[in-house]
Amino acid sequence: MSEMIAVGETIVPPPALKVSSTEVAVEMIDVNKWYGEFHVLRDINLKVMRGERIVVAGPSGSGKSTMIRCINRLEEHQKGKIIVDGKELTNDLRKIDEVRREVGMVFQHFNLFPHLTILENCTLAPINVRKMPKREAEEVAMHYLRRVKIPEQANKYPGQLSGGQQQRVAIARSLCMNPRVMLFDEPTSALDPEMIKEVLDVMVGLAMEGMTMICVTHEMGFARQVANRVIFMDGGQIIEQNEPEAFFTNPQHERTKLFLSQILH
Amino acid sequence: MTAFVSAFVRDEFVAPKPPPPSTVGVVGWMRQNLFSSVLNSILTIAAGALIVWLLIPLVRFTLIDAVWSGEDRSACAQATGACWAYVKAYLPQFVYGRYPIGERWRVDIVFWMLVIGLVPLLIPRVPLKRLNAIFLLTFYPLIAYVLLTGGHHVFTGSFLPEGLVPPSVRFAAEYALVSALIILAVGLLSVLLGKPVAGSGALAGMILGGLGLVLAVVSIDFGLEPVETANWGGLLVTLVVAVTGMVASLPLGVLLALGRRSAMPVVRLASVTFIEVCRGVPLITVLFMASVMLPLFLPEGVTFDKLLRALIGVALFSSAYMAETIRGGLQAMPRGQYEGAMALGLSYWQMMRMIILPQALRLVIPGIVGSFIALFKDTTLVAIIGLFDFLGQIQASANDSKWASPVTGITGYVFAAMVFWAFCFSMSRYAGFMEKRLDRSRR
């Protein structure tokens, strides 16, 4: 799972990336969520400053996906406050749309639109949501497609691309909206092992440019390389959070130790 | 003893070879599909014999023993085959019904305009699809309406005191007044809801303006002789009912399907009620309701054209079925498509219009075409309320003493079956072609 950097290997410390000390990107205050009777998120408190790269880890069913999906309101929370980019998420549809415009999301299963070409996938939201002229939207899209290294696929359909390529398109599609925060929901979990690296490379590049990122992932190598904070969740709660180095070498909670011993082999 | 080799390194790739000859070509195909086992061979031969046994009398009746020419019943009195002379003599009636002979060119124009508009729309390679669709959906119905009915409707107006404005513009004045009130109300409502006033007002203005334009056009006297719908008949009625039903049922069905899946309880309840009521009663009942019951609820003196009532009944009825078909497509869409669209900030209607519906409708093309075909055949039921559609016209003509013979009725039905089959089969084939095409572009 984490072949990139094995345990014990000396790690190149992440370059000094600027994390704002005053500007809050995402704030979750006492967030609670239930699916019927089932309490999925319990008293989640999380403050993400601009420029932070946060990796959320935890066993399946721990609520990590649900948590980040609350940030762009794909899931509704029932108690507590979520403030994204200064806007609180309530039932106000206009606020929700504003937040979604500023928050990019990359999914486990890409969720590209199969009936549109790669280029159309990328320009759809800028043209229709940001009201960008078509020509300009295409230029922006090609810029980001070049950045994820697949400009030559622009006129193909998603079904003609490999999983890794599709996921890179999905990242480019989100970037075309020029988001202030990027959410990654297990972006490499559905990929063949040979394709994980190409996606992670794009994500690393993005982090190095100072993008605020919240990533649910099992790629611990990625966490060590770019995260400035690792959050460990279980049972719908945040169990432990720390800087990656301390998190991996010196976990405090028993559950964290068990989890790390299971996945770092 | 040979050694068990566990290590293996391939030093050359296996070149592709052709498949064994017994599996390719006509012989291979027949061996695989028709004679793959003893039982299959017996079934193949039995089925072949059955086809021949059925086909021979059919060919004899429709072609070999058929009567092709003649002036009246004497030509077919002794015939043992189809009496095509009768069909030939009655063909104009089958197509136009009792539409005045001197005015039938109007029907022809309407028909050929439909063909000219529709064919380029259906062929994927022809450009200007959008313009073509706009023409077919806005100008064409208006032109067809004026041509078929003759236009020159007189609107007298109803509530402005007489003498206030000249009678010729009374209706126009009333319409303008009501429109202004509606636009005002829409503006007020959007202020209350905090929506941009200019947008909603302009939209309401455009809709009302368009409607006004339509009313103005149908009231112009083009010098065409008015033809009452009671005189329409034959294929004309069948096509008018079927095409109107198809065109109306698709958008209505989409709205109903979305309504049924809506998160808003009132919208959902209304959609479910409408769909279940329409699906729960036979079309004949709907038509009866439209033709017999509806006038009872309308105020004295207000009359609705019988054909119009049938059109509305058929459109509403088929939209309920369409809604269920489309809902199937919506439900088959993966959640991820909704989430991907939402995460990009698309609004509900943008998401539906650009992401969900194009894919969902594509999934249910077979169902939609099935509904269209059923609708096309169901148009024959308008005969129940006294409209003479294609089949009704044929049935009526079979009783004509001029052509009465033992084979007249059968010939009529065979002809009706052939025409219906030609329409339905071409719809089905076209749908198959589109399905394949859309499928290819997806891969």
Cα shape of chain B: flat
How many beta-strand segments of chain A? Answer: 10
Order of helices and strands of chain A: EEEHEEHEHHHEHEHEEHH
Low-confidence stretches of chain B: none
- CATH superfamily membership of the domain at 230-443 in chain B, which one? MetI-like
The helix/strand class of chain A is alpha/beta
Number of helices of chain B: 16
Characterise this structure.
The complex is a heterodimer of chains A (265) and B (443). In chain A, 36% of the residues lie in helices and 24% in strands. Chain A is of the alpha/beta class. In chain A, a hairpin with a 2-residue loop joins β4 and β5 (87-88). In chain A, α3 (118-128) crosses α4 (134-147) and α4 (134-147) crosses α5. Chain B has 16 helices and no strands. Chain B is flat, with a radius of gyration of 29 Å. Chain B is mainly alpha-helical and 443 residues long. The two termini of chain B are 52 Å apart. Chains A and B meet through α2, β6 and α3 of A and α12 and α13 of B.
Q: What brief labels describe this structure?
A:
heterodimer, A: 265 residues, alpha/beta, six-stranded mixed beta sheet, four-stranded antiparallel beta sheet, 9 helices, 10 strands, 24% strand, globular, disordered N terminus, B: 443 residues, mainly alpha, MetI-like fold, 16 helices, 69% helix, ATP binding (chain A)
What is this structure's SSE topology?
The complex is a heterodimer of chains A (265) and B (443).
Chain A: E1 24-35, E2 38-49, E3 53-57, H1 64-71, E4 79-84, E5 87-88, H2 93-102, E6 103-106, H3 118-128, H4 134-147, H5 163-175, E7 181-185, H6 193-208, E8 212-216, H7 220-226, E9 229-234, E10 237-242, H8 244-249, H9 254-263
Parallel strand pairs in A: 3-8, 3-9, 6-7, 7-8
Antiparallel strand pairs in A: 1-2, 1-4, 4-5, 9-10
Chain B: H1 25-33, H2 38-64, H3 84-96, H4 104-122, H5 129-149, H6 167-193, H7 197-219, H8 234-260, H9 265-280, H10 283-297, H11 306-332, H12 335-343, H13 348-363, H14 365-378, H15 390-398, H16 408-442
Helix pairs in contact in B: 3-8, 3-15, 4-5, 6-7, 8-9, 8-11, 8-14, 8-15, 9-11, 10-11, 11-13, 11-14, 12-13, 14-16, 15-16
